Amino acid sequence: MVQKTVMIVEDEAEAAEMFAEMMRVSGFRVLKYYSSGPAIPAISHEKPDVIILDVMMPDISGLEVLRYMRRQPDLARIPVIVVSAKSMPTDVKTGLDAGASLYLTKPVGYLDLKQAVDKVLLEGVKPHV
Asked: Which of 19, 33, 76, 126 has the smallest CB count inside 10 Å?
């Protein structure tokens, strides 16, 4: 079986490493980016199987990255799980409307993140485009 790739775009180093370790122990190849700017060309180049994306980033909002992806034919079908501290119902709706496959609020435990990744990969949850 070919190893699936998870890209993590998260500006908080500790959270990024925690998510990365969760995915590594689940058997995924992991790519990490601490800001959206470098992540955008990497997404186009790598075309990961799933992206774990924070909303509040130091340069470009995660929602803008998501909207950009959904406009690109070669990136539009990549599942994106938003993981954010923004937890109000309007925040969740905005994330899903922008094209998130799933929206999780921090803090996120191992089982919740693993189930979310499995769901978008194995059950074929489609982006809300």
From this structure: 126
